[in-house]
């Protein structure tokens, strides 16, 4: 998604593999070939679409041109060097990419960048106020709410939302409302205790 | 993802007129983006309809109208829903994660595709993904598969929790067809059984839009339960789920609703068991009998026989919980 | 480097790990997150058959996709000396000869890598790469093949089987465990940058930078010094980062071929097929005891699956020869080679698996004997290291058991299964223990002091989340006296003093010794500069201490400023190495743990909830109390996964993994895990190393799963001998 290449590439290359030729090619494939069970006749290429978009991230405006296929997560990580949001599965199954969109927690890996326009996006990088950490960040350090740190950004973004939503009535409630954020190191004690502390 | 063109129609009319042979609508995107990344869905055009569909919950005399764009969380925390249709809220909160519920739309929830692993692996045969390729799960690992209503062509189950509650509550689906006309479908007719063309999950006409969901008023807000059994405590699809609701007159059951997720290609209503419960006393014996009646119609696959006792246990437990689970 | 966040300008910082701020602010950079100009994106492509041969790659369609730069495969790759000339799978130490074989050993075996301009382009093009195969019928079903493979003696037997054939109480049972995937949250990733003169930089996710360096060096025939490996932040490993896997090698090849930096990150499904897993296993345990519960003998047989690429033995029976004082032990093992991905070491390898069999069998025996399982274990703890005959340096497993029993309220347990109830749930208590051989490896650390007295402690060792850096800071602070705010840590970099891979719970035991040695050396060197008239080596080291301002020897004090100016120094550097010594010949070393769990079981729905977990660990001195407890908590969470839900299914016909993603493969979420109660014995081991730390990464998970199974039995009377205890296994028991 580097500008320098992608723009040039999309302009210079246009590929339309006609459906008929794709089908014709199939007939030569011997039986031993494990073809993908996809509808091959749909496999013609649309030129990739580059869209100029405006994103508001951590109260800053960004103007950029992105592939229509780009997710918010990949734009953050690969384009804007905001690598605090993590890719743990890329399919909405782990919560590591959690950001706030218009103040609510959401998964940036399932959000197309083009669809994030006009919304206020907050990532982990935007949570602290300068050198002053957000209370949740401090609580995570104090309660050792992480080990390897990879799920931590998502945990903290989710934890802040969990408190805002008021789902901190009991250990069980916190745990349920934090279950969309997997932690393979299993630092669940610290995560839960950090939230309890901030919720007080 | 295959390259595609992204557009954002401003109105329903514009959306309907922008459709092409290989276009798709996108709202919450929680399932579609996933499917596109896997190239199970390969639209050449995406119509972002997030600005076109209603996103309000309207309480009417005879029920509630939930706009298709209302996010799942917004339904679950809505005061009127919590008061009068708490089963719906409870079912939604058992689904996915808070993040996904914040993103997912009401309409999109109905259109979720199965989570059958054979559907998700492009190298494995799957009639739902490509009809004619076969059903890999039928003789493969079908632990997550159906126990009722399936065919040799497909043993996949519908993954939604919200839909199980909607099925139990006799909801209706309001749609706008490609030609602009409107239609209301009974929720129970919306999803379909696989038969010989499992590539079709539901009876929504091509390119039609779900505009809203209607849930009628009922007397089930006092005795209800949504019990979801899965491989872990949270953030997992159901092995078996049960939506149970009772309208009680003293200890006598005036009306009963029982529906399940994780058992069939569509949210499944246990109508025989419901009929049995009607007019009966709320006793452990009657609950066990209702569970037995429901289970006697099931026929598990090679590796999911456990779902039958699980279903029975779930129905009994959910019915018991109805008695104590007061809203 | 962001590892040590410069907190000079901030207000009072919360106390925690040295890298805490980097991790909670998102500033920590993991392998795929370095901003490398002109980087191209690589995506691995896997085979779609499990056994056979590639006749021809079909890349034409993919090559035409937008943004594609090149597609590497066995038909198109650069020269790799370590692989060249290979046709059949050789018995090489690298595993799969990436892109140097047309043979397919398992489904989703890496067969190509697409390199493209953007991540979107690369992902899409990878989906278009296909191959024409000659397909053979794969062997993929462990259960079907397991008994066909003959067991082999481990040659570590003691006594004889005949000696206890008349034991009055016996248990003879079989146990199985499903395949478990490491699934660290960070997916394996590498950025490779070739530089002029055959120099190479790798930002790579792994558990040992020097290992990566040496593997790449020998494969590509480049001097190790030319290879710079950076793994500053590692998003978990659990063993998956102990090997160099095909994607790293492929990225090196790709970067060489396209003459650009290449970044590859595995997809989550590829995390199941390309970086190892805990193999599926079968065990038989036959155990005999007298009427007082004194163990008389054991036969432990085990088989685990491996890939057809390479044999891999998990070492399942090792733990049997270790924990208890069996006079008669017979252990046998075998490998079942299948057309499945390569397994590898996974947290507490071997012992975690073996303990499930042994600790379950002991519970079964106790039930038969009508004796308390805590008492029986206490009676049978190995009095010395059984395999060597050496005395334990320290082994407080007995104290772990006693303390754990007290903390959980073991007296509340009713030995009659199914007798306790809370609401609709049956309640049970279970106990099991674990043990892990402790050791350390030859490890280096350096310290660099600047004029202001700030020191930077460095090692090549990685910190995969275990708290290595924090431990280094603690040791340097304790030994030198320099305040922690003036101790910076840098690690996970092959430019720093060499260190072993972080695995086998040896990280802290190893690096703490090196930092200890370097800290002493620093004290001596600074003192030597401060008092050039004295012979620094003859000074009593305990009389030298460093502070934020200078060095003190007895009543004498010299500020750092004077030392640096008088000696005309820019910095003061020391580098030391430490490793095991004579103590290994004198003592046996182990860490141990006792697990006491309470479970609730809903019999109608088969729902099992772990209600309380008490884990008491003897790991010698605890250097980082918070991080150490966290390690054990995480191991407990892993134990819940292993005990109740983790299971990789296989489609036997095709050898495809079923549901190989984080929605299909379940490990514990927050709601599955109670607030785990951890406590440590905390007595330093005086012989293992100067710090007295024995290591605890593995031992927290060893014994966790059987404690759950034993508690389920106590709750319900159902003995589940197959893990995980999913609802079907519970119903069928």
TrEMBL record, chain A:
Signal peptide positions (record): 1-24
Matches recorded under SUPFAM superfamilies: 2Fe-2S ferredoxin-like, CO dehydrogenase ISP C-domain like
One family name in Pfam for this protein: Fer2
Record's keyword terms, sorted: 2Fe-2S, Iron, Iron-sulfur, Metal-binding, Oxidoreductase, Signal
CDD domains: fer2
Span of domain 2Fe-2S ferredoxin-type: 51-127
Molecular functions per Gene Ontology: 2 iron, 2 sulfur cluster binding; metal ion binding; oxidoreductase activity, acting on the aldehyde or oxo group of donors
Name under which the protein is recorded: Xanthine dehydrogenase YagT iron-sulfur-binding subunit
Organism of origin: Prolixibacter denitrificans
Lineage: Bacteria, Pseudomonadati, Bacteroidota, Bacteroidia, Marinilabiliales
UniProtKB/TrEMBL annotation, chain B:
Domain FAD-binding PCMH-type, first and last residues per copy: 1-220
SUPFAM superfamilies to which the protein is assigned, alphabetical: CO dehydrogenase flavoprotein C-terminal domain-like (SSF55447), FAD-binding/transporter-associated domain-like (SSF56176)
Keyword check for Flavoprotein: yes
InterPro entries: CO_DH_flav_C (IPR005107), CO_DH_flav_C_dom_sf (IPR036683), Diverse_Substr_Oxidored (IPR051312), FAD-bd_PCMH (IPR016166), FAD-bd_PCMH-like_sf (IPR036318), FAD-bd_PCMH_sub1 (IPR016167), FAD-bd_PCMH_sub2 (IPR016169), Mopterin_DH_FAD-bd (IPR002346)
Source taxon at top rank: Bacteria
Keyword vocabulary terms for this entry: FAD, Flavoprotein
GO molecular function: FAD binding; oxidoreductase activity
Protein's UniProt name: FAD-binding molybdopterin dehydrogenase
Organism: Prolixibacter denitrificans
Automatic annotation (TrEMBL), chain C:
Keyword Oxidoreductase listed: yes
Protein name: Aldehyde oxidase
Source organism per UniProt: Prolixibacter denitrificans
High-level lineage: Bacteria, Pseudomonadati, Bacteroidota, Bacteroidia, Marinilabiliales
Transmembrane helix recorded as keyword: no
Residue span(s) of domain Aldehyde oxidase/xanthine dehydrogenase a/b hammerhead: 25-137
Keywords carried by this UniProt record: Molybdenum, Oxidoreductase
GO molecular function: iron ion binding; oxidoreductase activity
InterPro entries tied to this protein: Ald_Oxase/Xan_DH_a/b, Ald_Oxase/Xan_DH_a/b_sf, Ald_Oxase/xanthine_DH-like, AldOxase/xan_DH_MoCoBD1, AldOxase/xan_DH_MoCoBD2, AldOxase/xan_DH_Mopterin-bd_sf
């Amino acid at each position: 998604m580097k500008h320098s290449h992608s723009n040039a590439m999309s302009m210079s290359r246009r590929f339309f593999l006609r459906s008929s030729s794709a089908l014709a090619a199939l007939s030569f494939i011997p039986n031993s070939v494990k073809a993908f069970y996809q509808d091959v006749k749909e496999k013609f290429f649309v030129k990739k679409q580059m869209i100029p978009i405006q994103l508001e991230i951590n109260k800053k405006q960004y103007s950029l041109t992105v592939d229509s296929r780009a997710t918010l997560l990949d734009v953050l990580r690969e384009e804007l060097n905001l690598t605090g949001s993590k890719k743990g599965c890329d399919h909405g199954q782990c919560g590591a990419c959690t950001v706030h969109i218009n103040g609510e927690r959401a998964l940036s890996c399932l959000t197309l960048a083009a669809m994030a326009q006009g919304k206020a996006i907050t990532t982990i990088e935007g949570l602290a106020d300068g050198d002053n950490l957000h209370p949740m960040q401090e609580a995570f350090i104090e309660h050792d709410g992480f080990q390897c740190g990879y799920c931590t950004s998502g945990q903290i973004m989710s934890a802040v939302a969990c408190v805002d939503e008021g789902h901190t009535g009991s250990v069980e409630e916190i745990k349920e409302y934090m279950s969309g954020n997997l932690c393979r190191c299993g630092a669940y004690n610290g995560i839960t205790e950090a939230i309890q502390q901030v919720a007080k | 993802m295959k390259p595609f063109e992204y557009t954002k129609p401003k109105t329903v009319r514009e959306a309907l007129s922008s459709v092409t042979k290989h276009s798709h609508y996108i709202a919450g995107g929680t399932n579609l983006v996933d499917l596109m990344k896997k190239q199970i869905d390969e639209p050449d055009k995406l119509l972002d309809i997030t600005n076109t569909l209603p996103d309000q919950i309207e309480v009417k005399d005879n029920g509630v109208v939930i706009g298709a764009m209302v996010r799942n969380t917004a339904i679950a925390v809505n005061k009127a829903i919590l008061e009068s249709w708490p089963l719906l809220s409870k079912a939604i909160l058992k689904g996915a994660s808070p993040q996904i519920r914040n993103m997912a739309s009401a309409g999109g929830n109905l259109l979720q595709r199965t989570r059958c692993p054979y559907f998700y692996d492009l190298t494995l045969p799957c009639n739902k993904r490509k009809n004619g390729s076969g059903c890999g799960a039928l003789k493969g690992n079908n632990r997550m598969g159906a126990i009722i209503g399936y065919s040799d062509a497909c043993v996949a189950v519908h993954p939604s929790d919200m839909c199980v509650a909607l099925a139990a509550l006799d909801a209706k689906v309001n749609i706008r067809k490609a030609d602009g006309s409107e239609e209301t479908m009974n929720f129970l007719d919306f999803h379909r059984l696989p038969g010989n063309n499992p590539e079709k999950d539901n009876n929504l006409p091509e390119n039609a839009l779900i505009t809203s969901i209607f849930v009628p008023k009922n007397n089930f807000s006092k005795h209800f339960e949504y019990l979801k059994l899965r491989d872990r405590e949270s953030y997992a699809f159901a092995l078996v789920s049960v939506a149970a609701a009772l309208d009680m007159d003293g200890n006598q059951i005036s009306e009963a609703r029982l529906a399940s997720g994780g058992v069939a290609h569509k949210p499944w209503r246990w109508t025989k068991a419901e009929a049995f419960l009607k007019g009966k006393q709320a006793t452990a014996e009657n609950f066990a009998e209702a569970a037995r009646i429901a289970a006697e119609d099931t026929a598990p696959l090679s590796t999911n026989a456990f779902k039958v006792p699980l279903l029975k246990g779930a129905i009994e437990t959910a019915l018991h919980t109805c008695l104590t689970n007061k809203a | 480097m962001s590892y040590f966040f410069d907190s000079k300008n901030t207000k009072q910082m919360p106390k925690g790990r040295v890298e805490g701020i980097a991790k909670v602010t998102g500033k920590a950079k993991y392998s795929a997150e370095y901003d490398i100009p002109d980087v191209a994106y690589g995506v691995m492509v896997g085979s779609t058959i499990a056994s056979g041969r590639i006749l021809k790659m079909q890349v034409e369609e993919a090559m035409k996709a937008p943004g594609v730069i090149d597609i590497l495969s066995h038909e198109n790759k650069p020269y790799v000396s370590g692989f060249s000339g290979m046709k059949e799978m050789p018995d090489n130490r690298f595993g799969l000869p990436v892109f140097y074989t047309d043979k397919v050993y398992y489904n989703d075996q890496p067969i190509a890598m697409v390199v493209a301009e953007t991540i979107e382009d690369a992902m899409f093009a990878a989906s278009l790469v296909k191959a024409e195969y000659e397909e053979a019928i794969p062997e993929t079903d462990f259960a079907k093949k397991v008994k066909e493979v003959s067991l082999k003696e481990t040659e570590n037997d003691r006594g004889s089987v005949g000696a206890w054939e008349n034991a009055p109480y016996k248990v003879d049972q079989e146990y199985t465990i499903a395949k478990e995937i490491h699934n660290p949250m960070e997916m394996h990733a590498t950025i490779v940058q070739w530089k002029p003169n055959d120099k190479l930089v790798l930002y790579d996710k792994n558990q040992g930078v020097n290992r990566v360096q040496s593997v790449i060096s020998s494969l590509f025939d480049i001097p190790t010094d030319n290879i710079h490996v950076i793994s500053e932040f590692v998003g978990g490993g659990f063993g998956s980062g102990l090997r160099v896997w095909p994607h790293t090698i492929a990225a090196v090849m790709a970067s060489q071929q396209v003459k650009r930096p290449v970044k590859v990150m595995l997809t989550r499904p590829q995390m199941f097929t390309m970086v190892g897993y805990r193999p599926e296993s079968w065990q038989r345990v036959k155990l005999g005891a007298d009427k007082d519960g004194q163990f008389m003998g054991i036969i432990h047989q085990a088989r685990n699956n491996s890939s057809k690429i390479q044999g891999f033995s998990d070492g399942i029976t090792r733990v049997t020869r270790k924990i208890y004082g069996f006079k008669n032990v017979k252990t046998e093992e075998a490998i079942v080679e299948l057309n499945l991905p390569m397994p590898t070491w996974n947290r507490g390898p071997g012992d975690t698996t073996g303990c499930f069999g042994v600790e379950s069998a002991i519970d079964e025996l106790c039930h038969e004997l009508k004796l308390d399982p805590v008492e029986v274990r206490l009676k049978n703890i190995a009095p010395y290291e059984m395999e060597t005959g050496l005395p334990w340096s320290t082994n407080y497993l007995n104290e772990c058991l006693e303390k754990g029993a007290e903390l959980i309220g073991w007296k509340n347990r009713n030995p009659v299964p199914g007798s306790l109830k809370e609401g609709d749930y049956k309640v049970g208590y279970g106990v099991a223990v674990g043990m892990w051989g402790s050791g350390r490896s030859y490890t280096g650390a350096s310290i660099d002091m600047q004029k202001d007295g700030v020191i930077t402690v460095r090692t090549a060792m990685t910190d995969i989340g275990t708290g290595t850096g924090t431990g280094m800071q603690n040791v340097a602070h304790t030994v030198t006296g320099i305040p922690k705010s003036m101790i910076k840590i840098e690690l996970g970099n092959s430019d720093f003093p060499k260190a072993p891979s972080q695995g086998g719970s040896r990280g802290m035991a190893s690096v703490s010794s090196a930092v200890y040695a370097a800290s002493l050396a620093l004290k001596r060197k600074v003192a030597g500069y401060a008092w050039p008239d004295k012979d620094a080596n003859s000074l009593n080291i305990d009389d030298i201490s460093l502070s934020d301002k200078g060095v003190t020897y007895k009543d004498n004090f010299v500020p750092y400023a004077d030392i640096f100016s008088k000696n005309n120094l820019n910095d003061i550097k020391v580098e030391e190495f430490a490793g095991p010594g004579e103590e290994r010949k004198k003592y046996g070393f182990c860490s141990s743990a006792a697990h006491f769990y309470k479970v609730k079981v809903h019999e109608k729905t088969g729902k099992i909830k772990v209600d309380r977990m008490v884990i008491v660990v003897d790991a010698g001195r605890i250097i980082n109390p918070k991080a150490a407890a966290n390690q054990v908590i995480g191991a407990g969470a892993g134990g819940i996964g292993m005990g109740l839900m983790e299971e990789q299914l296989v489609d036997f016909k095709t050898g495809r993994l079923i549901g190989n993603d984080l929605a299909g493969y379940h490990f514990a979420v927050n709601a599955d895990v109670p607030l785990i109660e951890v406590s440590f014995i905390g007595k330093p081991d005086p012989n293992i190393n100067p710090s007295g730390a024995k290591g605890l990464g593995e031992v927290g998970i060893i014994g966790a799963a059987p404690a759950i199974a034993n508690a389920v039995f106590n709750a319900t009377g159902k003995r589940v001998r197959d893990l995980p205890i999913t609802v079907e296994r519970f119903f069928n028991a």
